[in-house]
Design a protein that fits this description.
With 386 residues, the protein is of the alpha+beta class. Helices cover 33% and strands 29% of the residues. The two termini are 38 Å apart. 18% of the residues are buried.
Length: 386
């Protein structure tokens, strides 16, 4: 019994500390205005909850620069280039600052073909060329879409030739993968097959002095590392056409290591920027050099780390509840103002409407709430006489 009384006293003390007093339903007056604002509040809160959850799931992309210390890694280069000369007349080689033998990097596949594309191939290449050009030009405005939605450069998807022309092949397709040292290097395509020497190599182009040269070329694929979403490869879909036999094309490439950790993938790859230079070789005019296509690449000292960063769950919940509570308070304040204005208008225009409501409320609630009517306190006559 003592324990029960002690518990009851504690509960009574706790009830006194109730900061959320309850109002009996008999004293709650529902109005059409309040119902309208309740519906509006419900839809506003629902829309805000959807927006906040969407914003929370749509994480921020963070690009962080840091020194590249992984110098022992190998650099993979993916190549698919078509040159408007037969394979027997050109040679493709690569040299880097380590003076390593070119045989250590791998070997490109040579395939005799025709430089002129069929209509189906031309349509496919034009689509790749146009889309990659658009991605390069508008990258500043669509980079979030590329990284978050899993888009990137359109890969070389030129279909194979179905019909072969009735003439000799006039072009050479060089394609394959080379594994390079992670240092500066020079990949080039020039006239004549190369002769490898202990300290490098030479091209025997003097044997083809009488052979017309045409270094028009089409780049279907030129990338470093594994393909990744969000990365644009500037040279893919590029095409150079010339009628000059002594044209030199130079591409100066800056390769940037990139570590990606996003929703779609977690990978270590590379992206690059490029500058182009083309000029005709004329020794009589002081323009010296060797005709051909040269890709001179160098490694950046910094690498880019790309990762997604989301807001803390506790912060998200606090912001969500504060928004819901704020909307509820604001709509309640507006509802009070509207009801006050409505009451003043009824006092001036239709006061009889206001007079009916208290009577109706009293008659209705007095039947159910004993606090609104006086109980019968009559005492029996027999008790009074005693």
């Amino acid at each position: 019994m003592l324990r029960y009384r002690g518990k009851k006293k504690v509960l009574d003390k706790v009830k006194e500390l109730d900061a959320f007093p309850k109002v009996p339903e008999e004293y709650v007056d529902s109005t059409p205005v309040g119902g309208t604002f309740s519906v509006i509040t419900f839809f506003i809160i629902l829309w805000l909850i959807y927006s906040e959850v969407t914003y929370y799931l749509d994480s921020n992309l963070v690009f962080k620069f840091m020194p590249d210390t992984d110098m022992d890694e190998k650099l993979r280069i993916n190549i698919d280039i078509t040159v408007a000369m037969p394979c027997s007349n050109i040679g493709a080689d690569i040299l880097d600052s380590t003076s390593q033998s070119v045989f250590g990097f791998g070997e490109l596949q040579e395939e005799d073909t025709w430089f002129e594309l069929t209509q189906e191939q031309q349509d496919a290449f034009d689509a790749i060329k146009y889309l990659n050009s658009y991605l390069r030009e508008e990258y500043h405005s669509i980079w979030k879409l590329l990284w978050k939605k899993g888009h990137g450069s359109v890969r070389a998807t030129v279909p194979p030739r179905k019909t072969k022309p009735n003439r000799r092949a006039d072009a050479c397709r060089l394609h394959g993968v080379l594994i390079l040292n992670k240092v500066a290097g020079n990949f080039h395509i020039t006239a004549g097959k190369s002769l490898h020497l202990p300290r490098g190599h030479i091209h025997l182009n003097m044997l083809f002095d009488d052979t017309p040269q045409n270094f028009s070329h089409r780049i279907n694929r030129l990338s470093f590392g594994s393909p990744a979403y969000g990365i644009i490869y500037p040279l893919e879909g590029d095409e150079k056409i010339t009628t000059d036999e002594n044209m030199l094309y130079q591409y100066f490439i800056e390769v940037v290591p990139t570590d990606i950790d996003t929703t779609f993938e977690s990978i270590k790859t590379y992206q690059y920027s490029v500058k182009e230079l083309e000029r005709p070789i004329s020794h009589s005019k002081g323009s010296h050099g060797v005709p051909g296509v040269f890709f001179k690449y160098d490694m950046a000292a910094l690498k880019v780390k790309v990762y997604q960063e989301r807001e803390n769950l506790l912060q998200f919940m606090l912001r969500l509840f504060s928004i819901i509570g704020g909307i509820y308070i604001i709509i309640g304040f507006i509802n009070t103002v509207v009801l006050t204005i409505r009451t003043h208008l009824f006092k001036k225009v239709a006061p009889h409407v206001l007079l009916q409501k208290p009577n109706d409320f009293t008659s209705k609630s007095s039947k159910t709430n004993p606090l609104l009517f006086t109980p019968e306190l009559s005492v029996p006559l027999g008790i009074v006489k005693q």
